[in-house]
From TrEMBL:
This is proline dehydrogenase. Residues 42-286 form the Proline dehydrogenase domain. It comes from Solibacillus palustris. Pathway: Amino-acid degradation; L-proline degradation into L-glutamate; L-glutamate from L-proline: step 1/2. The keyword Nucleotide-binding applies. InterPro entries: FAD-linked_oxidoreductase-like (IPR029041), PRODH_bac_arc (IPR008219), Proline_DH_dom (IPR002872), Proline_oxidase (IPR015659). Pfam families: Pro_dh.
Amino acid sequence: MALRDFFISLSENEAISTAAQNYGFKLGAQHIVAGANLQEVIESVRTLNEQGIACTIDNLGEFVTEEATAIQAKDEILALIEAIHSEQLNAHISLKPSQLGLDIDIDFCYDNLHEIVEHANECGIFVNFDMEDSPRLQMTFDMLKELQKSFNNVGTVIQAYLHRAKGDIENFKDSRLRVVKGAYKESEEIAYQDQLEIDINFLELIEYHLTHGLFTSIATHDHNIINHVKYFVEQYNIPKEKFEFQLLYGFRKDLQVELAREGYQVCVYVPYGEDWYGYFMRLLAERPQNINLVTKRVFNK
Ligand code: FDA
């Protein structure tokens, strides 16, 4: 089994995930998770805002199978929206539909999302639906389309590894979109497996949305992609207000600050909460060197 597959299978293992939470088996995850609770994450966001960096905040959790757990997650996100609003933070929400009950019942999930988006809309806050693995993709797009009939403060993510991505980005060109390479294990029938093919598609999607779309979040730690985007926006006179670079909390902090100093909009994806295990394992899956980042900090404390 390849290392990537090994970590992805660990990310989906419920028993280990529960054990990790229950026994506080932190493995250094605190360096890439911005806090265990609302109060802690607010402090982390404030610090980033002071450096001229915006945030998208994710209350960690996914693949929920109990209604009560999904409702608890919804209530936490509503409280987070309140906090962003009252503390006047430069931040918006990222969420995973499977945390809000997508695997239980789509109508139940839709109602939860509706409540969140409606409240965020009242507070002038944007909500982004993270894109999960392919079985959840069309349902996520369908719920988004329905919500966009009433609200314009909601968008999602386009994954460049998917063959269908160009059609999807065209379909949602009037939305604010985050474009990424894609983090899940998908079959060759539906997804590019070759890194170069993914990178080429990634750049084409970014260029399309920069020139045809509403607002583009370019979410990557790849300096080659970032440098290409810098060159492209210059060539096509794309104003800096029309796009931002997004990076994950704890990753390439130097680059985050450097981009902000150069005058680009930078937004950091800030995860918080107890349910960090799946997120953490996917990060190890996609870049095993990430384990160095974590272990070095654990042992150099
Ligand atoms: P990738 O991992 O392909 O690395 C390319 C090169 O960049 C490396 O070879 C190295 O040179 C450099 N590099 C990368 N990381 C580095 C580091 N830490 N330090 C130094 N150099 C580094 N996925 C998804 O499916 N759904 C989603 O909703 C999201 N959301 C999301 C939000 C944000 C803000 C980000 C940054 C990413 C996501 N993703 C995601 C994950 C995304 O799909 C992808 O899996 C990861 O970002 C990894 O791909 P990269 O483009 O970062 O570079």
